[in-house]
Amino acid sequence: MIRNLLIFILILTSQIAISQRFKSSQSSVMFYSDAPMEDIKAVNESATSLIDLGKKAIVIVVPIKSFEFQKKLMQEHFNENYLESDKYPNATFKGKIIDWSGNEGVSEASAQGTLEIHGVSQDVSLSGEINFQNNKLNISTTFTIRLEDYDIKIPKALFYNIAEEVEVTAKFEYKPYEKNN
């Protein structure tokens, strides 16, 4: 009897762990550069993410070429000269969600992990908000990156056009992950 109960509990908990995986269904990653001569803004709605709530693990992949600018020439320079997107096609974050109970509702949380941009990896800690209700999950974060930390070179002639630090805002909506998706 006890053996059957233990087997039932094991099966039940393995099913719960499977249902704790979420895949992004919508995303928005925006960066903003506030420079003396010109503000630069680009938006990317092609990022993907997976979260395993059981392990509190998160992975985000942002295709660099999917950033859209108001000016096509900026987009061309961004991809060819600064981010070298043919050589480094993606920015990624791999980490663990910390400071979050996993309970339903809206709460502050943070994640620690590795952010890789332009082929350079940096350990980072990001803070944001998690909204987990009715088996739906949304996360949002805003953080700053220093271009020099990721070996992104800005020519001195463009020093007044491109800020040394860029603000990044990311929002993801998730739905339960099924292997067929």
Walk me through this protein's architecture.
With 181 residues, the protein is α+β, with helices and mostly antiparallel strands. It contains 2 helices and 10 strands. It has helices at residues 2-18, 72-82, and strands spanning 21-34, 39-44, 48-52, 57-63, 68-69, 90-98, 105-117, 120-133, 136-146, 165-176. An 8-stranded antiparallel β-barrel has the order 1-3-4-6-7-8-9-10. A hairpin with a 4-residue loop joins strand 1 (21-34) and strand 2. The longest helix is centred in the first third of the chain and has 17 residues, at 2-18. The radius of gyration is 19 Å and the shape is elongated. Residues 1-18 have low confidence and may be disordered.
Give, in spatial order, the strands making up the sheet with the most strands. Answer: 1-3-4-6-7-8-9-10
Sheet with the most strands, sense and barrel status: 8 strands, antiparallel, barrel
Q: Which structural class do the helices and strands define?
A: alpha+beta
What level of helicity do the residues show?
A: 10-25%
**SSE pattern, N- to C-terminal:** HEEEEEHEEEEE
DSSP E strands, number: 10
How much β-strand is present in the residues?
over 45%
Uncertain segments: 1-18
Q: Whole-number radius of gyration?
A: 19 Å
Instruction: Report how far the terminal alpha carbons are from each other.
Output: 38 Å
Query: Shape, please?
Result: elongated
- Work out the helix count: 2
Q: Please, what is the average pLDDT?
A: 87
